[in-house]
Write the structure tokens for this entry.
Amino acid sequence: MKKKLLFSLVLALVLTLSLAMPVLAETSAEVTVTATPSYISITNLPASFDFATVDESGTPNTTTGWFTITNDSTVNITVSIGCNGWSGTSSWTYGASGADTGQLKASDNDGAYDVVVPNGSTAELHTTGAPGTNVSWELQLDCPTTFSHGYEQTTTVTVSAAAS
């Protein structure tokens, strides 16, 4: 009986003390929040190309994959291409081959030269530029059918990127 009474007292004391103890619980929590801006950045190498001396009605080209655009963007991009026409003394007319008229064509690393590089606007060249990947491309010059002079001709080709 004494054991039962002692056990009951000890049990009552333990229960009383356990109810009196403070409950330990978290009163706050932290959440880490991140955000990556939609950022577009490209570079192109090499920065120039010289077709050197060309022939009437010729179609000289760079080798496949001659140029490389590095996509430092944080989003997928679409690459477009355009130019500012011919310049120099007695400039050629920019357009499909004719007398003193020539144009550039480009392709997306396949040597097809199936994208006419427009003068004063842009045309889509590549559509699946994932962040951190490179885009290779090449150019072809569709030379005039005849030349009326031997002056050097130049144009500036611009590649641009937009989020896709």
